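stuck on this fold:
=====
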Amino acid sequence: MQKRLITFDLDGTLLDSAPEIASAVNATLASYGIPPVDMKTIVGFIGQGTRELMRKVLAVVDPSLSQDALDARLRDVMPTFSREYELSVGTMARAYPGVERGLTTLQQAGVRLAVVSNKEHQFATHLLSRSGLLPHFEMVIGGDSLPRKKPHPMPIHHVLEQFTVSRSEAAHVGDSRTDIQSARNAGVIAWAVPYGYNYGEPIAQAQPDRIFTSINDLAEHVVLN
């Protein structure tokens, strides 16, 4: 069945945003006198929102922290991280090859588009706006937009309900196992791209329904079928 709605993950799917996330993380750590964390480690933590990312970073830089101490440190650090990320968001991120062309093709074909990200809504919209991609999307769902976030089905189900689209007419696209699980849990087709982050694992291990080399390739598949 032809797809009427496609929801997209953001980081690692539409935009390579890891450099600016790492910049904000290390600027935050520096303000507390903590040495920087390498890019590979930070990339492995992308996908669950900025709060969970910083929780994992703090656990790495000080493995001796108890859970209570880690929670307290996180509460202290997050306002600083939010300020640093607000300064960097959208300054270094770049759309992956084929993203803009693919989104335009889908729009022109009448396919409705939305972003479902675990990044906080404020940062997701700022990133899309500053990267020039925001006009392609009718809706942006962040990790704090609803009571539950990916891989819970609530975010995708919310978009389906708002657009009055059935599950069989929708697909979710992402770069990680979280996105594949989200699609499965929501009852929509699970598509993936082979680049991105995915916690350092090949996306094929998550067994998506189909892997597209680019968003443009995905768009051509949708339009021609």
The radius of gyration is 17 Å. Strands lie at 5-8, 15-16, 94-95, 112-116, 139-141, 170-174, 189-192, 210-211. The first strand starts at residue 5 and ends at 8. The chain has a mean pLDDT of 96.
